[in-house]
Design brief:
Elements lengths: L10 H13 L3 H6 L4 H19 L1 E4 L41 H21 L9 E13 L2 E12 L10 E9 L6 E7 L14 H18 L3 H7 L21 H7 L3 E5 L15 H6 L12 H16 L5 E11 L1 H12 L5 E5 L17 H5 L16 E4 L13 H6 L5 E6 L12 H17 L28 E5 L10 H12 L6
Parallel strand pairs: 5-6, 5-7, 7-8, 8-10, 10-11
Antiparallel strand pairs: 1-9, 2-3, 3-4, 4-6
Helix pairs in contact: 9-10
Length: 518
């Protein structure tokens, strides 16, 4: 989904922000800047090496390059894309027995798959994971386009009594249409940066005039020479008077589409839960649970931590009498698309998911030699997303021998299958528009096809194209397969899911029995 900071769209706030941050230290900014990029890289490499030593890994295979001119560029030829054509069958148990009933799936097979993902791929949420206490804060009546909404900032404080030196607070922006009937469905959206009020209401002109006078006086006291500057430019004001009408939202704005259809939206920034680098593994919620120590090989990685944070947001939203706890969904793009799929797979309370351009570690099959590979996720740049044990599948020299993606006990098709029979929409964009082939749209379609048998076993509809994932070919860009609880659509845009949001809303509304969007 296209991301942007709402506060920078409003002249009064952008001007004030520049003036304030020029003279004041902002605690969150100072904390974020405490480590330089070089420090983060060095700490990441140390932690990565510690995990390699723990696992007895002496050497990792390098991942392919996304630069097609590089000598080790990624493969994009379908003839070479499937070195491991036989994937684990989600309906065949570890002992070879076939799963033929929903009861056997729920009681036996699903726990087997969950255990394998937890131990080998994403890591485990510890039994003593801390509680999160949510407190509503400022609230404002705003308009998104022509839709009146109420936006409320909510802060989730993660209990840090086990290690008071580590503080984790999760800001969430809850946006509700002011006019609605009955309980509203909700979409939790992973966003870049702190979630901001969507359409801040500016003070009246007379208040802005007083603010400008005070700012000019303060600036002149700090630098008397500015008095002459202001005399020569009497019409200039530090804070421009905002337009009478707020600036329009971007075309096809997903939030505007959701609230116009009577949905509520909850935005959270995953990096407030866990930093997106290896240096942060001794802080954030992972570091808090481990009291600042390094991870064990099956401890959770950032993807699982981000998903855990979404589940804690679910806890809060499900108690709101205006919201429908049966229809709370999760959405994300790219690495946050991976986290959204993980959240849906592991927390059966989520009713729907929109998985945007998730690639390796998400909907893309590990066993495909196309674009991004397992080795890219075992290298020091992205290993923190995964459990430490995942590094073994990128090892060329290790205690116990080398392993490859073909040795993984699970596949991305089974991650999608863990979402069954709930509403699962796999979304990609067009490589021509910027959703790079690196993400392997074709392979992700194959994985979605392979997951379909579990949806059907549980009484849901799949894509309706059969089970032959090996020979499945994705439909043309712009052609959606939206007839079942499992859905696929590759849109015409780039690395975003925004063009698919209108299809997602109509698809979910249909399954909820709600009127279609106008």
């Amino acid at each position: 989904m296209t991301r942007y900071h709402a506060f920078m769209r409003t002249p009064i706030l952008s001007a004030a922000w520049c003036l304030i941050t020029a003279g004041l230290a902002v605690p969150g900014v100072v904390a974020a800047q405490a480590m330089s990029a070089a420090d983060i890289q060095a700490a990441t490499e140390r932690d990565h090496q510690l995990m390699m030593d723990e696992l007895g890994i002496r050497k990792l295979r390098p991942g392919p390059s996304g630069d097609e001119k590089a000598p080790n560029h990624a493969n994009y030829e379908e003839s070479k894309a499937n070195p491991f054509p036989n994937w684990p069958d989600p309906l065949v148990m570890n002992d070879g027995r076939t799963v033929r009933t929903p009861q056997r799936w729920e009681r036996l097979r699903r726990p087997e798959i969950v255990e394998a993902f937890e131990h080998e791929v994403f890591g485990r949420v510890p039994a003593g994971a801390p509680r999160v206490d949510w407190q509503p804060g400022e609230s404002e009546a705003e308009r998104i386009g022509s839709i009146p909404v109420v936006a409320t900032r909510v802060i989730g404080h993660v209990d840090n009594s086990a290690d008071p030196a580590i503080t984790v607070d999760i800001p969430m922006m809850l946006i509700k249409p002011a006019r609605h009937q009955g309980r509203m469905p909700v979409l939790i959206m992973f966003v870049l940066g702190p979630p901001a009020f969507p359409a801040p209401v500016s003070p009246p002109p007379e208040a802005i005039a007083r603010m400008n006078s005070a700012l000019k006086a303060a600036m002149t006291r700090q630098d008397p020479s500015l008095e002459e500057v202001f005399r020569q430019h009497p019409a200039w004001e530090p804070i421009a008077t905002p337009p009478f009408f707020p600036p329009p939202r971007p075309p096809g704005d997903p939030i505007q589409q959701l609230v116009a259809d009577g949905w509520a939206v909850a935005q959270i920034n995953p990096t407030s839960i866990q930093a997106d680098n290896g240096a942060g593994l001794t802080r954030g919620v992972i570091g808090l649970v481990n009291k600042g120590a390094a991870r064990k090989p099956d401890d959770w990685g950032a993807l699982r931590a981000w998903a855990w944070g979404a589940s804690r947001a679910y806890d809060y939203l499900a108690k709101d009498p205006e919201l429908d706890p049966q229809h709370i969904g999760i959405e994300g793009v790219s690495r946050y698309g991976k986290a959204a799929l993980v959240a849906m797979a592991f927390d059966p309370r989520f009713g729907m998911v929109l998985v945007g351009s998730s690639g390796e570690g998400g909907a893309k099959p590990h066993r495909r030699n196309f674009g991004e590979a397992v080795e890219n996720l075992t290298a020091s740049g992205e290993y923190h997303w995964m459990a430490g044990n995942f590094l073994r599948y990128g090892a060329s020299d290790a205690k116990g021998g080398a392993r490859t993606a073909g040795d993984l006990p699970v596949e991305s098709s089974e991650l999608i299958a863990l979402c069954a029979p709930r509403l699962t929409f796999i979304s990609y964009g067009s490589p021509e528009a910027g959703d790079a082939l690196w993400l392997d749209q074709q392979g992700s379609y194959m994985a979605t096809v392979a997951a379909g048998a579990v949806f059907r076993l549980l009484g849901a509809k799949d894509l309706g194209v059969g089970d032959d994932y090996r020979h499945a070919r994705k439909p043309p860009v712009g052609t959606g397969l939206l007839g079942g609880q499992l859905a696929w659509r590759q849109h015409e845009g780039g690395h975003t899911d925004a063009p698919n949001v209108k299809y997602f809303i109509a698809w979910v509304d249909r399954w909820m029995g709600r009127p279609a969007p106008q």
